[in-house]
Write a structure and sequence with these properties.
- By secondary structure, the protein is α+β, with helices and mostly antiparallel strands.
- The protein has a domain of 110 residues: Glycoprotein, Type 4 Pilin (2-Layer Sandwich).
- It contains 4 helices and 5 strands.
- Strands 3-4-5 form a 3-stranded antiparallel sheet, covered by helices on one side. The protein has a two-stranded antiparallel sheet with strand order 1-2.
- The chain starts with 8 loop residues before the first helix and ends in a 5-residue tail after the last strand.
- The chain binds calcium ion (2 copies).
- The site of one calcium ion has 8 residues, from loops.
């Protein structure tokens, strides 16, 4: 039997309605373009969905760290630190805020490990005098002084600063219990936009539920 006899004539014969035979070609250019547009749209939706999932995971991870730090500070119940300072030939005692010895609202790392990173002022915390004061009071920052505080390594930098998911050090402020929902202090991350809004905006704060 000849091979052409096995082909259905309807599939190859010219059609009376002027349309192409059913198996005459693959995709037309228009069909290819439509397929490409659909694939591009689906890819965009997939990327947007992925980005949203990553952002949510970072917010949730940062919130866990903020609450862990807040709990560790409450456990210490140590708000102030008496620091001996040598002025001329005389020693005197000054009071500093524990966990923010240099009063810059950045949660302290370990002063003795302060990397003095010139390109990142946020982790360039301690002046030489503040470092000396911290050393004289055996003060080493939250992570070094909180043995029960367990944080994922990605949330701690070389200077023992606690970082959020965007690699920014956490912030702290003391004193205003009305602002901090009854607590004497508040801890926060500057959030996805990396801008410090004192706990407002997209900041992730220990005294706010999100
Ligand atoms: Ca500080
Ligand atoms: Ca912010």
């Amino acid at each position: 039997m000849a091979s052409h006899e096995s082909v259905d004539p309807l599939l190859v014969a010219p059609r009376s309605d002027g349309m192409k035979p059913l198996c005459s070609s693959g995709f037309t250019l228009i069909e290819l373009l439509i397929a490409m547009v659909i694939i591009a749209a689906l890819s965009g939706l997939g990327f947007a969905g992925y980005s949203a999932v990553v952002k949510r995971a970072r917010i949730d991870g940062t919130r866990t760290v903020v609450l862990a730090v807040s709990t560790a500070i409450q456990r210490h119940d140590r708000q102030d630190l008496a620091v001996p300072v040598l002025t001329g030939a005389n020693w005197r005692t000054i009071v500093r805020r524990a966990w923010d010895l240099d009063d810059d609202n950045v949660l302290d790392g370990d002063p003795s490990l302060d990397p003095k990173e010139p390109l990142n002022p946020a982790v360039d915390e301690f002046t030489a005098a503040e470092k000396a004061e911290a050393t004289s009071a055996a003060y080493r920052g939250l992570v070094a002084e909180s043995p029960n505080l367990s944080l994922p390594p990605r949330h701690v930098d070389a200077g023992k600063h606690v970082l959020d998911a965007w690699r920014k050090p956490l912030r702290i402020d003391h004193g205003d219990s009305e602002r901090f929902s009854g607590s004497r202090f508040g801890v926060w991350s500057t959030g996805p936009n990396g801008v410090d809004e004192s706990g407002d905006g997209d900041d992730i704060a220990s005294w706010k539920s999100q």
